[in-house]
C-alpha cells in the first residue's frame, strides 16, 4: 500500500492512498461470498451461484461497495499510522478508482491535531494563595450542617416565606391558552431556590394556606421551548401546604448527634482540621490551574473546531450523567432552567476550548521534555486507585485493559507529570 499526504489548509490534510490490485481481488472475493448468500438465481440454492454467472448476471460492479467497505477502514488506519498523523475528526472520503484487476485509490481529507508553538514554560510565576482556615469559614460550615439537620414544621397560619417548602398546584397560560408542561398538582417547591421561572417564587411568598393567585411572569428569551421564549405567561396557583425549617441549636448535644465528639468545641476543632486539609488540596489545585494557564498564555495554537465540538459533547454527556445520579434528566433540567441544549452548549464552549488548549499545550511540553508514562508510573496510579476503590490492583488493570482505557490512564499520568514539572520549575509571587 502507498500513502502520501499534504497539508491543504491550517490543520486540514489530504491523504492519497493506493491499495494493491491483489488486495482488491481478495476484497472482491470476500464481497462475493457475502453478497451471494442473499442472491436468488433460478436453478441454484442461495450461496451456490458460480462467481462467473453472478458477475455475468449482476456485473462485478455490484461487488464494489462491499469491497470498499472491507478495504477502506484498514487502509485508512494504516495510512494514518505510517504518516504519523493524529486525526481529530472523521475523514471525508473520495473514491478515485475501484475496478477488478486494478489498484483501489482514494483520497481522505481529515482535520488533524494542530501544532503548538511553545513559549517560555519554565520559571512561570504562580500567585501565592493562603491555605489558612478562618473562624468564619468554620462557622459557615456549621451553619450548612445545621441547615441539613433542620426539621420541617407544618405551618397552619401565616404567609409563606423565603426558605419555606410549599406544596402548590399550578396551571400556566400563554395568550389565554394552556401550554404543554405548564400544569402540575401538589408540586413541592422551595421558595428562594430559583428553580422556577424568574419571578415565580417571589410571588408565591406571602400567600397563605388555601390562597389562589395569578402569578404573572415572562419566559426568558433563551427558554428551550421556542413557542414560549420571551412570552408573558399567567400561572393560576393554589397553595396547599407550607413547611418551615426549624434549625437545631449549635451546642454540645448537636455535636453528639452529628459526630463522635462530646462537645461542640471538640467538633469545631476537628471540623477546622478537615477544612484545612480540604483547603490545602484546593490551593494546590489552584496553583496547578495557575501554572497551566500561564504556560498556555505563552503558546500559540490554532484549535480546530472539531476538537471543541468533541470536548463539548463530552462535557454535555458528563453533565447528563451527573444529573441522572441526582434523579433528574436533561428534559426536566431544560424545563426547570428555561434553557435549551443550544444555550447549554454555548455556555460550555469557552470551558471546552480552554480544556482542549490546555491539553494540547501540556502534551507539547511533555514531548519537548521527553516525558513518558512509565510502567512504574502506571503501577503507582493503579495503586492509588486501588486504595480509593478498595479493589485489587490487578483487577483494576484488567478492567482498564479489557475496556481499552489503558491509553487514557497513561494520558492522565503524563498530564499530571507535566503539571508537576511546571510547578517544580515555577516561582511563587505575592
Summarize the structure.
With 430 residues, the protein is of the alpha+beta class. The chain contains 13 helices and 13 strands. The strands form four sheets. Strands 7, 8, 9, 10 and 11 form a five-stranded antiparallel sheet that branches.
Question: Which characteristics define this entry?
Answer:
430 residues, Alpha-Beta Plaits, 13 strands, Trigger factor, domain 2, 4-stranded antiparallel sheet, extended, alpha+beta
Describe this structure in words.
This protein is of the alpha+beta class and 430 residues long. It folds into 3 domains: 2-113, Trigger factor ribosome-binding domain (Alpha-Beta Plaits), CATH 3.30.70.1050; 151-246, Roll (Chitinase A, domain 3), CATH 3.10.50; 257-429, Trigger factor, C-terminal domain (Trigger factor, domain 2, Orthogonal Bundle), CATH 1.10.3120.10. The protein is 47% helix and 21% strand. It has 13 helices and 13 strands. The chain has helices spanning 21-35, 51-58, 64-82, 135-148, 200-204, 252-258, 264-297, 305-325, 330-337, 341-369, 375-389, 393-402, 406-424; strands at residues 2-9, 12-19, 92-97, 104-111, 116-117, 125-127, 151-154, 165-174, 177-190, 212-218, 232-246, 300-301, 427-429. Strand 1 (2-9) and strand 2 (12-19) form a beta hairpin. Helix 4 crosses helix 7 (264-297) and helix 7 packs across helix 13 (406-424). The radius of gyration is 32 Å and the shape is extended.
